Amino acid sequence: MRRTRIARATWPQPSNGPHRVACHFCDTLHEAPAVPEGTAARCRRCGVVLYQNRPASLVRTTAFSLASLVLIGITHSFPFLVMKSNGLQTELSLYRAAHELIREGSVVIGCGVGVFTTVAPLVMAVGLLYVNAPLLWGRAAPGARVVARWTAHTEPWNMTEVFLLGVLVSLMKLGSMAELVFGVGFWAFAGLMVCMAAAVAGIDRNELWDRLEVADE
Amino acid sequence: MSDHLPKAIDEGLAGCHSCGKVSPAALGRCPRCGSSLHTRKPASVQRTVAYLLGATALYIPANLLPVMTMTEWGDVMEPTILEGMVEFWRREAYPIALVIFVASIMIPLIKIVALGWLCAAATGRVKPSPRVLGRIYWLTELLGRWSMVDIFVVSILVALVQFGTVMTVSPRSGALAFAGVVVLTMFAATSFDPRLLWDQLDLGENSDTIPPQTESE
């Protein structure tokens, strides 16, 4: 187990500290001192990570969520894949992937696909940007706490990486019967997957909520 | 065993699911982020079992019904998920066949069995090591989303393969059942409260003198 005696926080602390933390996995209660950047505090009983101090968390999350937002714009403006067969041509876009299902009568799956590939990434990118960017200047945007909570709830439903695997499998299925060309939308979406993962990996939950609390004091 | 670590519930405290702040559970809502506070998730085992039963029921049509209709020059094919995998295997695309087998057939089954076993452990019916349980829980949370890949393949094929009389693909009800399995197992994983596993462990340690009523080898 890693122990540290350095108790200097790298961000402003709310006045109602000192903090305690309950392990979300086994409910063991701990005192929660600040840990050095790049390290994590682990539960004494079950060993799961209680909290981490992630370096430059606000800047990273802001930068990558902004990049995600730009890439979402690009991926919706250009075709994903173009398929040519027997002189005919069709295009895949994220919108069409959901809309064609709805048009064919599979409303529920169509809406599901739309939520997992379009709505959830958009909510994540906008939400993270809305909460994190003003905090760079020590301010909390109106309703930032509600937005932060809902952004966290959205995370498991953002399935960009799974959709990319789906594209790969579809390519294998169609490769023999048609000519397929990757569009700009595909590369933007692959970039979106990376930026989204980086934005989420940048979040330091303790720092975020401490700063939100301090900003409102 | 003598090293007894304090638990949040013993002091009437609860760690917030969203922001991590430890507050008195009697408040009902987290004073920092407004999420509802529980010492344990309400009716966790009942809810998880209900979602699992739903997922198990849907697992059968999800594997027996075709997920799409492929029409090529008047030939109609209606592959189920398993047939789609076998087709890749037959064409010697082994890695992709393996990916589909793991994501679509293995993972939902593993999730249902594992969560069922966790529910049995949380109610004291089986007594495995908490470390093993921790790994299983972590795995079920991590893997669930990847099962969605086959739904995305259907959505991509439906959007791309629209060549009138030459070749078309349309969705079928198996896809809906399959999406249902994935979503229900995701809900099952989030409604399960892993802290119950540790409560059972503590219960076992405190009542060593009383042997359990049904002991089987």
Structure in words:
The complex is a heterodimer of chains A (217) and B (217). Chain A is of the alpha+beta class. Chain A folds into 2 domains: 1-53, no CATH class; 57-216. Chain A contains 7 helices and 7 strands; from the N terminus they run E-E-E-E-H-E-E-H-H-H-H-E-H-H. Chain A has helices spanning 57-77, 94-103, 107-135, 144-154, 160-174, 184-202, 205-216, and strands spanning 20-22, 29-31, 40-42, 49-52, 81-85, 88-92, 179-182. Chain A has a 3-stranded antiparallel sheet. In chain A, strand 3 (40-42) and strand 4 (49-52) form a beta hairpin. In chain A, helix 1 runs antiparallel to helix 3 (107-135) and helix 1 (57-77) runs antiparallel to helix 6 (184-202). Chain A is elongated. Chain B is an alpha+beta fold and 217 residues long. Chain B has 2 domains: 1-39; 43-206, no CATH class. Chain B has helices at 44-64, 81-90, 94-122, 130-143, 149-160, 173-191, 195-206; strands spanning 13-15, 22-24, 68-72, 75-77, 162-163, 167-171. In chain B, the strands form 2 sheets. Chain B has a 4-stranded antiparallel sheet with strand order 4-3-6-5. A two-stranded antiparallel ribbon of chain B has the order 1-2. In chain B, helix 1 (44-64) runs antiparallel to helix 3. Residues 208-217 of chain B have low confidence and may be disordered. Classes of the chains: A alpha+beta (217), B alpha+beta (217). Chains A and B meet through strand 1, strand 5, strand 6, helix 2 and helix 3 of A and strand 1, helix 3, helix 4, helix 5 and strand 5 of B.
Task: Please write out the topology.
The complex is a heterodimer of chains A (217) and B (217).
Chain A: E1 20-22, E2 29-31, E3 40-42, E4 49-52, H1 57-77, E5 81-85, E6 88-92, H2 94-103, H3 107-135, H4 144-154, H5 160-174, E7 179-182, H6 184-202, H7 205-216
Helix pairs in contact in A: 1-3, 1-6, 2-3, 3-4
Chain B: E1 13-15, E2 22-24, H1 44-64, E3 68-72, E4 75-77, H2 81-90, H3 94-122, H4 130-143, H5 149-160, E5 162-163, E6 167-171, H6 173-191, H7 195-206
Antiparallel strand pairs in B: 1-2, 3-4, 3-6, 5-6
Helix pairs in contact in B: 1-3, 1-6, 2-3, 3-4, 3-6
